[in-house]
UniProtKB/TrEMBL annotation:
Molecular-function GO terms, alphabetical: GTP binding
Protein name in UniProt: G domain-containing protein
Stored Gene3D superfamilies: P-loop containing nucleotide triphosphate hydrolases
SUPFAM superfamilies: P-loop containing nucleoside triphosphate hydrolases
CDD domains documented for this protein: Ras_like_GTPase
Residue intervals of the G domain: 15-116
Residue spans crossing the bilayer: none
InterPro entries: GTP-bd, P-loop_NTPase
Length: 298
């Protein structure tokens, strides 16, 4: 019974979803948000392994400034196979989490895009575009935490100097934090990690990102069948007439996520189109499974 009440209370907390490339520091940022919380609360696993460490979305209740938030650690998006941008499985999981929070929870109150500095890569840009612009349609507040900035002379200057590079890529954020998300290797003489000082200074910065930008009302992705309709519409009208701007835009990001746009000039390209269609189909099936089971928990 007590567990039931606890779960009910947790379900009402604002959801904060972290996303970004594999190894950019998402789980490390989650642990920063848990700083100051009861030490018995489980921390997120962090690893320097090349293949990725977090394989499913997992939530943590973080108390920040006297208020509780449900913080979601997610699987890293990566360079997928065959030139696709998002690793299909990771992207699928991320979309399913948003769907789950929309249909079974109280929506998403804040997205945190975690990026490893100091360079903004094409992959960062595409992950952002596909997920935020494409899937979330820019409708939810978003902030950025740039990790790996421990060697900057004046750490916060990094954003001042680099914001224009994001603007140029049309990556706009409600807030930003320049941080290091690790205290680094233990240094005997210092008696702590080599980055301990800058790490400690970074913790309140990421916590402020949440307290200052988390929306009271969670955003819900309501158009559950939009993607299916867009794809069906495009495939039906494809080659017969030019798609309208809305369809073309959605097509653009699904193409970026799942593979190149097909041309009918060679057999090889048709194979690619078929592979891509199968990947999209797979995603749609799993998303609609999720929705059909959402029932009255909405
Ligand atoms: N130098 C440096 N290393 C960092 C920073 N943040 C995280 N790391 C290290 O990067 C590695 C990956 O960190 P994680 O927090 O596991 O990254 P992640 O994004 O959760 O990774 P996946 O779950 O695999 O996608 C670990 O060895 C961290 O200690 C940072 O700001 N600077
Ligand atoms: Mg992780």
């Amino acid at each position: 019974m007590v567990f039931g009440h606890k779960r009910e209370a947790e379900a009402k907390l604002p959801n904060v979803v972290l996303f970004g490339s594999t190894g950019c520091g998402k789980s490390s940022v989650v642990n920063m948000l848990l700083d100051g919380n009861d030490s018995s609360v489980a921390r997120a696993n962090v690893s320097s392994r090349a293949i990725g460490c977090t394989f499913e979305s997992k939530s943590y209740v973080a108390e920040i400034g006297g208020k509780n938030y449900k913080v979601w650690d997610t699987t890293g998006l990566n360079e997928g196979d065959e030139g696709m941008v998002a690793n299909t499985e990771a992207f699928k999981q991320l979309c399913r989490l948003i769907k789950h929070l929309s249909y079974k929870g109280n929506g998403v109150s804040l997205l945190v895009f975690v990026m490893r500095g100091p360079r903004v890569t094409e992959n960062n840009e595409k992950n952002f575009e596909v997920f935020f612009d494409g899937f979330c349609k820019k409708e939810v507040p978003i902030v950025i935490a740039v990790t790996g900035l421990e060697n900057e002379e004046v750490i916060d200057q990094w954003w001042v100097d680099n914001k224009s590079a994001f603007d140029k890529r049309q990556m706009y954020f409600n807030g930003s934090a320049c941080i290091t998300a690790t205290s680094g290797n233990f240094h005997k003489a210092l008696g702590c990690g080599v980055h301990e000082h800058v790490y400690r200074q970074s913790i309140p910065k990421v916590q402020r990102l949440i307290t200052e930008h988390c929306a009271e009302q969670g955003w819900k992705k309501v158009d559950k069948f939009t993607i299916v309709l867009i794809l069906a519409h495009y495939q039906l009208t494809h080659d017969k007439k030019k798609p309208n701007a809305w369809v073309a835009r959605c097509w653009k990001w699904t193409t970026k996520a799942f593979g190149p746009k097909p041309t009918h000039s060679s057999t090889g390209a048709e194979m690619t189109a078929r592979d891509r269609a199968a990947a999209i189909n797979d995603i749609l099936i799993s998303l609609s499974d999720d929705e059909s089971s959402s029932g009255d928990e909405k």
